[in-house]
Sequence to fold (105 residues):
Amino acid sequence: MAWVWLAIAGAMEVAWAVGLKHPGAMSRPWIATAVVAAMGASLYFLWLAMRTLPLGTSYAVWTGIGTLGSVIFGIALYGESMAPARLGFVALIFIGISGLYWVTK
Fold:
């Protein structure tokens, strides 16, 4: 169940990062509230995962999911760069997350 909590924490990490990029994010109360709620939820689910998973694995996977999701949404919503080198380095992050999943008991 810890990996599920960690995946949810990562998804909430993406949600608040994307929310911060939203135009007028901090000037619209409902968006600001959603961003802060996603931050809190992200930390809560990370804490749940860390009760079972190692600290380093949890933190690396959490930030990795946040990075991957932010890059994907940045490309899809904001037209950010899809330069091959950028995507290659993002692929390395994905490989690192996958590797940590497979080697963590």
